[in-house]
Design brief:
Number of domains: 2
Number of strands: 15
Helix content: 25-40%
Mean pLDDT: 93
Radius of gyration: 20 Å
Order of helices and strands: HEEEHEEEEHHEHEHEHEHEHEHEHE
CATH architecture of the largest domain: Alpha-Beta Complex
Distance between the termini: 28 Å
Shape: globular
Structural class: alpha/beta
Largest sheet: 7 strands, mixed
Low-confidence stretches: 8-16
Number of helices: 11
Strand content: 25-35%
CATH superfamily of the largest domain: Medium-chain alcohol dehydrogenases, catalytic domain
CATH class of the largest domain: Alpha Beta
């Protein structure tokens, strides 16, 4: 599914979504701008059409991309008005015709990529192919931390970097939602994991989630610490959450034929291409919304197995009521992330 197709599906007045009758609470954006444009309103309740699932939202995940879309600075803009949000967890309220994989009452989470009417709401419709069963051992708040973060980490590691067991990966910005997911997934699949964070609390969390080494990326000597941890061999893969700050230095850290996967970026950056040339290195961009359906199915089969086996454990840093969506958008962009921020309707 392409990014343009995904964003077209988040419109509040989305075509192909029926109205259930009655109203519900939802966050509505009627103009692009700052966090203040996120307004809690009474809106018509949706109903599923064929191939869709209606979910009673118990928790909605907040991602940095939600803020970019809300501000109007993302490459593609949804039609106004719209309800934000991709990640959710809850119980199936109803299903459209042709849906057999889930039934009313089932606990589910969305992969965050397929079409939805917006998760910052009491009810949301999702395409059935993008809804996954939520294990009983995983809370709804944790379920809302799975879709985009774990899907992004899985795609970056296995489909973009094509990691193999025994390689060394640096997760640059490992204390946020995607970073924690990447640390857990990489550790469970036999990689040596180095994670960076910017606060003592973040470093402690990164170690607790399985990183073999944790470094403070605010320390001017953190590159030396990484080199020491690899015996000067360098890292095979860097998962980069803030390329505009780190990308050029990432290239200094790579082993021969190393790869940098750019997951997050907030500005232009200048690099020295010779650093990549001398190592036969690759800089790989990725966007979770570009994931083919086959990749998503494979990723969430693996993620589901990890959730069941307890090798993957989503970490929720903060839970806020739905009416505080604006505060959540401010918090998700602040330094010192400690897990996922979720909204509770």
């Amino acid at each position: 599914m392409l990014a343009s197709e995904v964003l077209a599906s988040v419109a509040f007045a989305s075509e192909g979504t029926a109205r259930r009758g009655g109203t519900m609470k939802a966050i509505v954006v009627r103009e692009f701008g700052g966090a203040e444009v996120l307004v809690l309103e009474d809106v018509p309740s949706p109903s599923p059409v064929p191939g869709q699932v209606l979910v009673r939202v118990q928790a909605a995940g907040v991602n940095p991309v939600d803020t970019y879309i809300r501000s109007g600075t993302y490459a593609i803009k949804p039609t106004l008005p719209y309800t934000p949000g991709r990640d959710l967890a809850g119980t199936v309220e109803a299903v459209g015709s042709g849906v057999t994989a889930v039934a009313p009452g089932d606990r589910v989470y969305s992969d965050g990529v397929g079409g939805t009417s917006g998760s910052y709401a009491a009810l949301a419709v999702c395409e059935a192919a993008h809804v996954n069963c939520l294990p009983e051992r995983i809370s709804f708040a944790q379920g809302a931390a799975i879709g985009v973060p774990y899907g992004t980490a899985w795609r970056a590691l296995f489909f973009r970097a094509k990691v193999t067991a025994g390689e060394t990966v640096l997760v640059h910005g490992a204390s946020g939602g995607v970073g924690i997911a990447a640390v857990q997934i990489a550790r469970a699949h036999g990689l040596k994991v180095i994670g960076s964070a910017g606060t003592p609390e973040g470093l402690a969390l990164v170690r607790k989630q399985g990183a073999h080494v944790a470094v403070d990326h605010g320390d001017p000597d953190y590159i030396d610490a990484i080199r020491e941890a690899t015996g000067d061999a360098g890292v095979d893969v860097v998962l980069e959450m803030l390329a505009n700050v780190n990308l050029d230095r990432d290239l200094d850290l790579l082993a021969m034929r190393g790869r940098v996967v750019v997951i997050g970026n907030r500005a232009r950056v200048e690099i020295d291409p010779r650093k990549a040339m001398s190592r036969d290195a690759a800089i790989l961009g990725m966007n979770i919304f570009n994931s083919p359906t086959s990749e998503l199915a494979s990723a969430h089969a693996g993620i589901g197995a990890g959730l069941e086996a307890a090798t993957l454990r989503p970490i929720v840093g903060r839970e806020l009521p739905l009416r505080e969506a604006g505060a959540a958008h401010i918090a998700v962009m602040a330094r010192g992330a400690l897990g996922k921020i979720v909204l509770v309707p």
